[in-house]
Design brief:
It contains seven helices and ten strands. The chain is of the alpha/beta class. The protein has a single domain, classed as P-loop containing nucleotide triphosphate hydrolases (Rossmann fold, 3-Layer(aba) Sandwich). The strands form two sheets. A six-stranded mixed beta sheet has the order 6-7-8-3-9-10, sandwiched between helices. The chain has a four-stranded antiparallel beta sheet with strand order 2-1-4-5, with helices on one face. Helix 3 crosses helix 4, helix 3 packs parallel to helix 5 and helix 4 packs across helix 5. The chain is globular and about 45 Å long. The protein binds adenosine-5'-diphosphate and magnesium ion. The site of adenosine-5'-diphosphate (ADP) has 13 residues, from strand 2 and helix 1.
Length: about 230
């Protein structure tokens, strides 16, 4: 029998998140593993805890209870600075509203995460803009770009430090369906051609079906975990 070992990049164990303001239990005992090289959708309705879960998986936020392991390492005891360094090198984020810096060009936006880890490399940034099909827009400001182009810049920025994993929160939520489809194709391409692990958080079941594995979340609990 052929036994293929799949490495886990991020694992969370029995995660709870209680927002003190409003006493909301956003996550109630969530456990999951993200495997190297997979495409995964976390699917659930609005308010089900998807963004909260993504922020915790990506170490942008800490759980109220439970453990997050990044490549086997328990990150709960790390300082904010140490966590920020691990995050910058391992994870690239893509958000619904792009979050580009409005007064920086496309190229400068892509360079930002590099500056954070002290490795400024203009050539590599140009290369990344090429991968997302925007080499001709390097010197444009975000306001001079369409929504789809802005999201491409955000994806290039997510790739800046060559992370193993891309976490995308409703990456097509602010785009028309044709442009959204192009963004999904680009994310799938990054998986296929560049070996990136891609996790998409969404309320859109059509989008979720494009990923190999789907985890369903509702009221802060995983109700169905595929494969
Ligand atoms: N910073 C916060 N403070 C208080 N409650 C929050 C905060 N962020 C999210 N929530 C609440 O937690 C629940 C889950 O939110 P969220 O993770 O954003 O869900 P989703 O991304 O699936 O729409 C919701 O009830 C939301 O109102
Ligand atoms: Mg959300």
């Amino acid at each position: 029998m052929l036994f293929i070992m799949t490495k886990t990049i991020i694992e969370c164990k029995n995660i709870w998140k209680i927002y003190k303001e409003g006493r909301v239990q956003a996550l109630c005992g969530v456990s999951l593993k993200i495997r190297k090289g997979e495409t995964l959708a976390i699917l659930g309705p609005s308010g089900s805890g998807k963004s909260t879960l993504m922020h915790i998986l990506g170490c942008l936020d800490r759980p109220s209870k439970g453990k997050v392991l990044i490549k086997g390492r328990d990150v709960s005891k790390l300082s904010d600075d140490e966590l920020a360094k691990i995050r910058a090198k391992t994870i690239g984020f893509v958000f619904q509203f792009f979050y580009l810096v409005p007064y920086l060009t496309a190229l400068e936006n892509v360079m930002l995460p590099m500056i954070f880890v002290g490795e400024k490399n203009t050539e590599k940034c140009k290369e990344l803009l090429k991968i997302v099909g925007l080499e001709k827009r390097a010197n444009h400001l975000p306001m001079q770009l369409s929504g789809g182009e802005r999201q491409r810049v955000a994806i290039a920025r997510a790739l800046a430090n060559n992370p193993e994993i891309i976490l995308a929160d409703e990456p097509t939520g602010n785009l028309d369906s044709k442009t959204g489809e192009e963004i999904i194709k680009l994310l799938l391409d990054l998986n296929k051609k560049h070996g990136k692990t891609v996790v998409v958080v969404t309320h859109d079941s059509q989008l979720a079906k494009r990923m190999k594995r789907i985890i369903h979340i509702k009221d802060g609990k995983i109700i169905k975990a595929g494969g």
